[in-house]
Amino acid sequence: MIVEIRSFQTLVDGGDHAEVELFVRILNDRNGEVLASTCFTASPPARAAAITPMSARLFRPPIVGSVER
Description:
Elements: E1 2-11, E2 17-27, E3 34-42, H1 51-68
Antiparallel strand pairs: 1-2, 2-3
């Protein structure tokens, strides 16, 4: 599994919120073929306490999805 962090920032114009975007690829380790890929985004309020729940929302789907395969 390769996780590419495409965006990880706090935006203060037009309302304080964080923005996170991850692009996840699952590869065949023998030949490098991409078996699946998807993009996950989250945009919670920009509070220090929001980082942990945001991370849980972002990382759970790729991990659960890869285990279910």
